[in-house]
Design brief:
Helices cover 42% and strands 21% of the residues. It is an alpha/beta fold and 220 residues long. It has one domain: Rossmann fold (3-Layer(aba) Sandwich), CATH 3.40.50. The strands form three sheets. It has a six-stranded mixed beta sheet, sandwiched between helices. The protein has a two-stranded antiparallel ribbon with strand order 1-4. Strands 2-3 form a two-stranded antiparallel sheet. α4 links the parallel β8 and β9. The termini are far apart.
């Protein structure tokens, strides 16, 4: 089964159905990267909906089989903390070892940035829940590479499709695969009446100019 537009729309609808996506034009959200945005996607809510989570995992497995290839993966690497649940389930489903990756070294114990066993030249699939600017996700890629692992692929549930993220992964020679994306999410949100056409247009304005949107709207 190819990863089709229909699957992208179904994945987006799941996120909308569990209210993982919120839109607030009056009081925008600030991302970890510092960007102000009228939209916030909290995929962590999936953990509380086992049937929806199971379907998302099926979609991720389909994406892995059709676009990456199971034989091209030796280890599943989850990003801490949001990517860990999905990485753990994928690891069990694929019968592959798992590691997880921290943003910073521990200040105690073994001072690890990688938990689990990673051997030289093992091929690691990075599992993330969400991609915004790509900075924190690609940091996980670099952590594995610095430890002697090989990373050519990263998979995530959702991407805001920001230009910066595309550049980060392209320049870092790592392919990014996502179940769904910002434009599909907005299309489904309007169709299912989660947002009005006017709200969708405002969100699209932000997506086209994330750097200038806050100033244009008078928030900065």
């Amino acid at each position: 089964m190819e990863h089709t537009e229909n699957i992208k729309m179904e994945a987006a609808k799941i996120l909308l159905d569990i209210k993982a996506v919120t839109l607030n034009l009056e009081k925008p959200y600030r991302y970890t990267s510092g960007i102000l945005s009228p939209i916030y996607c909290d995929n962590r809510l999936l953990m509380s909906y086992p049937e929806k989570l199971d379907k998302m995992i099926d979609y991720m497995l389909n994406l892995i089989i059709t676009h990456i290839g199971i034989n091209n993966i030796d280890v599943i690497g989850g990003t801490s903390t949001a990517g860990i649940p999905y990485a753990a389930i994928l690891s069990e489903r694929l019968n592959l070892p798992m590691i997880y990756l921290k943003k910073d070294k521990e200040e105690h114990g073994k001072y690890n940035k990688i938990e689990g066993v990673l051997k030289n030249n093992q091929r690691v699939l990075i599992v993330e829940d969400l991609i915004s600017t790509g900075g924190s996700s690609f940091a996980a890629v670099e952590t594995v590479r610095e430890a002697g692992g090989i990373v050519n692929e990263c998979i995530a549930i959702f991407t805001y499709e920001l230009e910066k993220a595309g550049s980060v992964f392209s320049e870092g020679k790592c392919s990014l695969h996502t179940l769904t994306n910002f434009l599909v999410l907005m299309k489904v949100a309007e169709k299912e009446r989660y947002v009005t056409q006017a709200e969708k247009e405002k969100a699209l304005e932000w997506n086209k100019d994330t750097a200038g949107w806050a100033k244009k709207m008078g928030y900065e």
